[in-house]
Amino acid sequence: MPDRGGGPTGPRIRxxxxxxxxxxxxxxxxxxxxxAMLFVMFAGFWTDWLWYRSVHYSSVFTTTLETKIGxxxxxxxxxxxxVGTNIWLAYRLRPPLSxxxxxQQSLDRYRSAIYPxxxxxxxxxxxxxxxxxxxxxxxxxxxxxxxxxxVSFHTKDPQFHKDVSFYAFDLPWYRFxxxxxxxxxxxxxxxxxxxxxxxxxxRITSPGARATGAATGHLSVLLGVFVSLKAVAYxxxxxxxxxxxxxxxxxxxxxxxxxxxxxxxxxxxxILFCIAVICAGLFFATLWRRTWQLPVIGFGLxxxxxxxxxxxxxxxxxxxxxxxxxxxxxAPYIRKNIEATRAxxxxxxxxxxxxxxxxxxxxxxxxxxxxxxxxxxxxxxxxNVVSPTFQQLQQIRGYYGFPETLDVDRYPTPGGGxxxxxxxxxxxxxxxxxxxNWINDHFKYTHGYGVVAAKGTSTSRDRAGSPDFIEDDLPxxxxxxxxxxxxxxxEKTTQYSIVGGPQKELDYSxxxxxxxxxxxxxxxxxxxxxxxxxxxxAKLGEPKILYSGAIGKGSKILLKRTPKxxxxxxxxxxxxxxxxxxxxxxxxxxxxxxxYTTTNGYPYASRTTLGDTTADSLTDGQREVVAQxxxxxxxxxxxxxxxxxxxxxxxxxxxxxxxxxxxxxxxxFPGTVKPKSxxxxxxxxHLRYPQDLFKVQRELLTRYHVTNPVTFYSGSExxxxxxxxxxxxxxxxxxxxxxxxxxxxxxxxxxxxxFTPNSRDNLGAFMAVDADAQSGGYGGIRILKLPPNSPxxxxxxxxxxFNSDDKIxxxxxxxxxxxxxxxxxxxxxxxxxxxxxxxEPVYLRGANTNLPLLRKVLVSYGDKTAFEDTLAKALNVVFxxxxxxxxxxxxxxxxxxxxPPDSADPTVRQALKDAQDAYDAGQKALxxxxxxxxxxxxxxxxxxxxxxxxxxxxERRSSDQQSGQGGGDGKGGAGTGGTxxxxxxxx
Length: 987
Description:
Layout: H1 20-54, H2 58-92, H3 102-114, H4 118-138, H5 141-149, H6 164-198, H7 213-240, E1 245-248, E2 251-255, H8 259-289, H9 293-322, H10 326-344, E3 351-354, H11 365-375, E4 376-377, H12 387-394, E5 400-401, E6 407-412, E7 418-425, E8 427-428, H13 438-444, E9 448-449, E10 451-459, E11 467-472, E12 477-478, E13 486-487, E14 497-499, E15 505-510, E16 513-517, E17 525-526, H14 530-540, H15 544-547, E18 556-558, H16 563-570, E19 575-576, E20 581-585, E21 588-599, E22 608-609, H17 610-613, E23 631-632, E24 634-644, E25 650-654, H18 660-668, E26 673-674, H19 681-684, H20 691-704, H21 709-714, E27 719-720, E28 723-724, E29 727-731, E30 735-739, E31 748-757, E32 765-770, E33 781-785, H22 795-804, H23 806-816, E34 821-824, E35 828-832, E36 835-845, E37 852-861, E38 864-868, H24 871-878, H25 906-926, H26 934-963, E39 982-983
Helix pairs in contact: 1-2, 1-14, 2-4, 2-6, 5-6, 5-18, 6-7, 7-8, 8-9, 25-26
């Protein structure tokens, strides 16, 4: 009997195999883990398929999936076959007997260990390399689809005279195939060397020949294939010179051939191609000669040639031929670069005209004043400043919100014309939901409600400086007519909602109580089946979806709810603009999304990084930057997309009917893009020129407005985009504005910007593009170029002039009343009568409030400035029609500067205090521990309005007593702008 007890050293513990029950448990757990992983993978695939089917773009999903699967298996199998075949061949070519050396004796142990599992080892190695290669190839689905569906650009490059499609669609695919070939050859070579060494075909220390004849032949063929691929690479590199980027004095992102490329690198690549072909032939010849002497010599010659011909010779040409007379040598290539860049970015039609920048001496001031009213519809309402005002006056409920930057659109006036309008949607604000729980967050609070719109060219008559709303209240009412007001899809709607089931949704709250609603739109994925519920529970990590009683018959889940991600999902081949904007079209709220087709393979066109080019003062935490890291050298606004705010329907419309990149993608995804003729007239009225494309074009035009190679090389006429004068360190954003350029007969909706000369602050040029999609001149770029020595002030200098004016500073001090803050709107620039008119709205933000109200307007023309209550008054002052308002800041005898009054009108002061108290009461009602008190909040909003009304009336009386002039309705304008425009302390 074995000893089961303890010994002198203590009890012995018997270690044995786990019991059958434990083994079965471990196997079961392992199987369950594998099944769980497989189900998670299935859930991702299944939910994506259901979503694409729900939005009626299932063909995008299937085409993309089939392409990825096809590339995965084809290239995975090719890689497995290449590596596996060479491993098998090396094994078959092993010598029959191994020399009994110490080296071979040590290898025998490994051979013996591998022998029983050699088939499994071969299978494991080939499967691993096949999976890696297949996954890499699947990521090239866009490259494959562009190559197989590519259409002609009908434009040839100036060097090789090949169609641009070769560089945009063909060359990337050829480079992928070449890279795959190199990878397969190198892996096969490494595997073959290891097998030959393991089985004695290659010897390091054994006596006799270092390689058998069979091993020599096998490896020589693989090396011959490698060198053959290198020859192909040299040949393709010749064409790659046309799309090669390099640093060059005239521009940071030069693309295309230069003198040294055409006269040194190009012939060098051709010579190296010939040498590589000869060298490859020498490697293949070892099948008969069984010696590596000639291939090694040939390979050494190729390496030496690569150093001398491919490196040293071009350097000599650059040093001794180009540098002594670089301007003359490079001029023909600079011309090619200019022409290609202007064509690739759509700026080749830009009209550049000289502009004096100053009104002619003796110009009739009355005519200039009249022309100011007809040249531009100047917007005083800055959509980047007044969002808090919309929030305070039109939020209505704490769970609604507006974006930080509102949008500019056009809507008809009662008289039949059009007016620039500032628009925002009252979207659901997740942080404002009174009590967060799963039901409230995903079932009850599901949507926003209504459009809020205000005139851009005036302020309300009954509240000092507040927007003049043409559509407001809840439910919204005004001039936009009846439309579906519920907003289920929006820029702030980032989480999923479950609708249509037994759980009622909160529609909106009114004086009569809460209104409920059940979603009936054609959107969302059904959750009626157990499989769907389980799949979404796994995808979203929310097990409650499986068993919640709030989900039942008719329940649907809404996903991908921002306009940008919906368009990106249904058209993954498009680059999406950073700013979607809403419009009321045919009784529906539609998000309008601009989308671009791009390529990085346009020969000779300089590249740009989209994220850097489209950044400005508005993308700093407010708007998104388009395609942060994408480098492109061709871009077209080829698609206009809409997303219905109620049912999420995505519609893609062809916009640029001549774009070959879009035509290629339409072949790859037929039926996904509707023709341009399908755009309705009502939608066409709201389409506009996109800001991101404009910003890309203006960045290129800082240099490429010059078409003379000599001037371009010298850099003497380079411009720069000025900083936002009220947000230093960020580019000034472009402004939408209805205006008339000097060569136009009537105003048109435009997108405008300014340029300053390089490293200087005076104005260098003014640029505008026709942004009205209904205009026959849509997309036409006009540039007014000022003289190089122009004394005309740029935006920074004009802002500095405003800030340094003592009279303006005194008026600002009076306006601020203690702790109130001044906030500047954007500085608009308008060509007028040969000169330039600058207009800037000034907002007052009351102490401890977030309610900026428009109180003053700054205007500058030539050497004249004005700071008045209304734009009309300010224009009259600048053009000599009226004297400046008497604010009491100067004594009658004109001496000295008096102290500002130590107190304001008591009525105004009391009204402002009442407004602050009403605001505080409203916020307190929203933060009630028992839930928001909507009755108290509504009363506080009414009290706030009444207090502001009293303040406005008292201000008007005070103004009448001081100057004898009414406040007016503030008709006039301002443009879009940025943030960070506050002035703390003194003026």
